[in-house]
Predict the structure.
Amino acid sequence: MIVHPRARWRWAVVVCGTVLLGAFPAALAALPVAGSAVSPAALRARIMASASLPYQGYAESTVDLGLPPLPDLQGVSNLLDGTTDQYAWYRSPRHWRSDTLTAVGEDDVYQVCGATYLWNYSYNLLTRVLGTEPVRLPRAADLLPPALARQLLGLASAADHLSRLPSLRVAGVDAAGLRLVPADPATTVSAVDIWADPADGLPVEVRIMGRGTSRPVLVSSFLQVSQRRPALATVIPHPAPGVDVVTTRLSSLNGFLNEDHRRHPWPPRLGGLARLPIAGGGLAGVAAYGSGFARFALVPLPGTTGSRIVDAATAAGAAKVTLTGGTGVLIRTPLLTVLLASPPFRGITFLFAGAVSPALLESAASDLFSRFASRP
Amino acid sequence: MIVTRSLTKHFGSFTAVDHVDLEVQEGDRYGFLGPNGSGKTTVIRMLLGLVYATSGEIEVMGMRMPARSAQVLPHVGSLIEGPSSYGHMSGRANLALLDAAGTAGSRRTRKLRINEALERVGLDGIDNRSVRKYSLGMRQRLGLAAALLRSPRLLVLDEPANGLDPQGIREMRDLLVELNEAGTTVFLSSHQLSEVEQLCTRVGIVDRGRLVLQERLEALRAPTGRVVVHSPDADRAAAMLDGQVQHREGDRLVVTAADATELNARLVAAGVRVAQIGAEHRSLEETVFAVTGSGSDRMDRADHVRHPVRDARGTATGQDGGVTGPPAGGEAG
Amino acid sequence: MIRVELVKLARRPRNWASVALLCGLPLLVAVFVAVTHLAPPPGQGPALLSEVLSSGSLYPAAALAIVLPVFLPVAVAVFAGDSIAGEADSGMLRYLLTRPVGRTRLLWAKLVALTVYVVTTVVLIALTAYATGTLLFGSQPVAAIRGSLTTSSVAATSLSGSGLSPVQLILRTLGAVAFIAVSMLGVAAIALFLSTVTDSSLGAALGALAALITSEVLVTLNSASAINPYLPTRYWLAWIDFFRQPILWRNIDRGFAVQAIYVGVFLAAAWAHFATKDITS
């Protein structure tokens, strides 16, 4: 086909225009990022002090653990596998709100002074949770970069190594990078990378690397962020007349818990790690052991829930392991390790989960079972 | 009216039109002849700015095409490769849409223009039936009406007689002559020799993309210098005219002679009965065959000069191949 | 020429049939839901459909959600694919161009007709759905929000659980209608471009739909996340963000921008191609 000479320049104009448009975002991203000379320790201090900074923004968290879907823990496994989009309005530590966005609805968390409100569009239900929960399942708001960064840095001990990373532009912020390498060999976290606004320490991106993988297992970053303080009205729920509102004191974990074990005295040490004190006295019968990044949670699951989860994990290809005094099913992911351990005689399953090596959890479970065996 | 210089069009590696120099003068009834696939339609599309030339120049009404389409085309009426219309609408509605499209004339006089055009083509009695239900001939007339909508100075008609019955063809011919006499230049393409012969004053013949001949029809049909004699006494006539007879066929003789009347006098004087006598003219058909090859939708293997030809649409038109004409040569008597 | 195109648009029975079908599907769904009182649970099925039992005035948005995934893009692609290719196919293109109608002007007129078709269709869907919704489900009993400074009536519940006043609901529905119309214009631009490339209107429509399906597949693909923001259907569902409280503008803005770029690029391509194309139909 002979191309008309005028066609050539017209096409040239169109192609050039399209390429320019397409390259525009890339060109913006390629603009040099302003570096920052702040020291790792100073940056860490700024991040830890950033809890009072207001912000609002759109955050996207991608976690790639490869966890099998676990019954009754759907919310958690969705959170820990896949992409979560949320919009957060953070006015102060006492007043904030985070909406987890889905294509057809949303799940919101409001923090209003001492109370937490959970809005679930699917159930048309606003739940008011009184008091703070000392132990609860992870939820989307925990993955917001500022919350996650402060949480992770809070776990760091003096032995962990801090260094600076090259700056990165995140959601328009020229963010200074900080790398934390845990010293404890028992944890599966090989590094935590945090980028924060060097001026005031507002974290804008967090990445967690697992041992043995080069790609981050978790990336949480702002796609859009502003430090404008949201209005109070925005962070307070205004349920419409047709919305069901319930008030509860119960923790989100209560659905799983075995009443019998509420007062069960947990051993002070398991697998060589010390039990962590839980504020409020361990309301849910849940225990946590360890220090720094090498820590795990221990949750007793009642018989039916436990066996359903064990079955699902087995079906998904989790490895069976033999423990002294019981059996277990081990779910290994690049970051999180989950051990479902069952003593042979009782209708109960113990869920051990943490960013620690499988061997540590197995020895902890064996420790726990040996205590049962020694006790009549 | 229409001038092209070295007009050339390639479709890929195929040369559809090859250095064509057309010249149509104002007031002509120009017949553009050629076998199917010889490039007639492509030339017409280039004249109207539908297809862009690969090289060469086009001037219509003294203005460059396609650069000045906006000035030229309002004065051109056209019928290209058959009529088209929106089948779900009536003929009148179709004309109204076409009239409104482009540099529209006054909206107030639209109805008048449409009625006039319909009357011209003999469709003034049409009702509100949708065009889908029209016969082929009616559609052809409607197409012609569309071409006449704005009293064009130039009519470009591609195979206008298609689909018309003999009566319709005659009506169309009369209409075109009438329009031409009123000052409209008519440029029509055809592969029907008789149509061109009866209507046109000037002929251009195109073959495999090249303009092989462009001449006044009268000049083409000049006497050949021979006389055709029909006589019941053919033997005697042949004996008498020995040496002059070129060809004999029963009682028909072809004789080399400058003047038919003088020959007639000689024959009659010699007592030879003459049934019919007249100067021989070249027929258009002979001229066409002399300058063109066979219809180019034939695909002969022997020579590779001839390319497989597609017409402008890239498909066969489905009409009879080759140039067709009346069965006998034009014999004037 | 624009007037001519609008006349053609209005006088073509096929166009009205497509609009009637598009308005009819939500009507059918509404009748079933109203008769059985079985709406899909919130968060499942078409967006917002669960809400309409309590407030019929949300039905325009729900109706758009019903037709958005398949019906509407198909209708728009078929209509837009017919723009130039249909004229070429019927043979009218050559007569229009020799009228003469400038090629750019013809394209422009086609674009206006397309826009009118898309907007009319989307608005008609919303209007018939509003009538259907209020008729079959009734509008939500006007209730007062307590505790706020002013007591205002509530027409519907937002995705965030808070109430929307009638004015808010109307404005947001209009926003969603505008967003969906613009998304459809993106589809139309692709189909219009293809319509200048081929003489088969079906081919152009199918080409545009193939582009959309490819885009929808790539949107869900993690490994294609690098090109995700450039895909035409990436932000299609963002109209639902109008029904959050407060409105989540990020994806809406991007959706508008992406569609504007698609419309611009494909119109430019259509212009570049059509204005210098040999018309051999």
Q: What stands out?
A: The two ends of chain B are 36 Å apart (CA to CA). The first strand of chain B starts at residue 2 and ends at 11.
